[in-house]
Design goal:
single chain; alpha+beta; Beta-Lactamase; Alpha-Beta Plaits; 2 domains; 3-stranded antiparallel β-sheet; cyclic-guanylate-specific phosphodiesterase activity; PAS-like_dom_sf; Cyclic di-GMP phosphodiesterase Gmr; PAS; Rev_trsase/Diguanyl_cyclase
Length: 235
């Protein structure tokens, strides 16, 4: 700016206030020039923009989060999937878990939507507790969820599927009514079963329906010839 390339400059940066609070400040500097065009001084304004920065962060958070459960929204989880696939090496495995709750309709029908919403939130939190911090959990809508997880091999993918089934069976119990929801989980791994995001979602969905048709409360692994491999029900 002192050489005259630009006449003004705006930057936001974190700052520690003298009272110990962390705030955001915006620095706006403008060059004052003489009649020959040379910079003779700088005029700088500083203002506290903590409220604006916090508001923007909250809006971004709400835009990518499911309003009920707090996990990623449908759009956000699919964007996360596209991003993960675009930067993945040819030998790196990404597992998708398609979770569909068993018996959830009876919760809504018999106990009402408020209790149903509470149970959905419990299930979402249970899933988040099972997965690793870098894994992604999203809600497609209704009682369907997606989990994305980097895995070392198929046994690792299967181990997480089993943990998800077990965790949901516990979290899905309504103590007052004695009703329980479980989960049918379909597992597909890229690049073994699919390469694109839509195909991976479809293969995981196919495997989920196999798990449901085989008795529910279990997971099924997608096969290369489409469909899935059955697994025993959770205890």
């Amino acid at each position: 700016m002192l050489r005259g390339e630009i006449d003004s400059w705006v930057e936001q940066s974190p700052y520690v206030h003298k009272d110990g609070r962390s705030i955001w400040v915006e620095w706006t500097s403008s060059a004052l020039r003489d009649e020959t065009g040379h910079v003779v001084s700088l005029l700088t304004f500083v203002r506290d923009v903590t409220h604006q920065v916090d508001t923007h962060a909250r809006l971004l958070h709400h835009a990518e989060r499911d309003a009920l459960t707090g996990v990623l929204s449908r759009r956000a989880i699919m964007e996360r999937l596209d991003s993960a696939l675009s930067r993945r090496g040819h030998d790196e495995l990404l597992a998708m878990y398609f979770l569909d709750l068993d018996g959830f309709k009876q919760i809504n029908d018999r106990l009402g939507h408020v209790r149903g919403d509470r149970l959905l939130t419990q299930v979402a939190h249970a899933v988040q507790d099972v997965v690793r911090r870098d894994d992604a959990v999203g809600r497609l809508g209704g009682d369907e969820f997606i989990v994305l997880s980097d895995v070392a091999d198929l046994p690792s993918a299967q181990a997480l599927a089993s943990k998800l089934v077990d965790a949901i069976a516990v979290a899905g119990y309504d103590l007052l009514s004695g009703l329980r929801v479980t989960a049918s989980v379909g597992v597909a791994v890229t690049p073994i079963h699919a390469r694109g995001s839509y195909e991976l979602l479809q293969r995981a969905d196919d495997a989920m329906y196999l798990a449901k048709n085989l008795g529910k409360n279990r997971w099924a692994l997608c096969r290369a010839d489409r469909g899935g491999l059955p697994t025993p029900p959770a205890d």
